[in-house]
Amino acid sequence: MKILIVEDERPIAKFIERCCKKILHDQEALEIEIKHTLENASNYLFENQIDLCLLDLNLNGKDGFDLLKLALSGSFHTVVVSANTDRAIEAFQFGVLDFVPKPFDERRLRNSFDRFFERVELNSTTKYLSVRKNNENVLLEIEEIYFFKAAGIYVEAHLKDGRIELLDKTMDRLGQILPSNFIRIHRSYFVEITEIESYKHVGGGTYCVNLKNGESLPLSRQKYKELHELFNH
After folding, report:
1. Domain residues for 111?
2. What does each C-alpha distance from 47 to 44, 125, 172 come to in angstroms?
3. 132 CB contacts (<8 Å, ≥6 apart)?
4. How far apart, in Å, are the Cα atoms of 88 and each of 8, 29, 39, 183?
5. Each residue of 190-201: b (16+ CB within 10 Å) or e?
6. Residues 147 and 211 in one domain
7. pLDDT per residue over 136-167, tens digit each?
8. CATH number, domain at 55?
9. How many domains, the chain?
10. Is 0.90 surpassed by the pTM of this model?
């Protein structure tokens, strides 16, 4: 289990870490990372997969709500740990698991972990992806996306309204958070499976997938076999 603690006050961050280790003493491969700034936390989340984020809202004067948008777009859950209790309702609107007001004790944090494990059992799926625009995180609805295409170290999200948005994620990272209705048809493409009209062997070693919107995408030989098994099961 991987946990990210985002807290600018180092003593509180260490206290949360100690509580986590005590509460999760029976968890195998427990990893806990601490970040003290919003920027460092954002950079860490772009490069690493976690299960749970414990987030303060006031980070050296910067707003932790910006990180909550990443939580909506990631495959992890968030518990807010903050003295800003006036923002609790707003936090829950972002879909956080729990709001732990400061000061708090181990028992209160344990309640949050109980909620986390209950939610994991429900197997909730990613509904949004985050795009960085004008120094803000903008959310894209997964259901509005036809397919994803690798673009160097980034990924293009091709939307049903014709827009193309650039995601600051690798294809491998994307594969970790996409819901099961997206399949990888090529090292450079993920496609929403219900948007596939047909697939075929063009000739030689060339294969392709035809989408319902008329676009044709490359299909690897191995993925051709997997699609054939999937659609003819």
Report:
1. 2-122
2. 5, 20, 11
3. 138, 168
4. 19, 32, 23, 37
5. bbbeebbeebee
6. yes
7. 777 888 889 999 999 988 899 999 999 999 88
8. 3.40.50.2300
9. 2
10. no
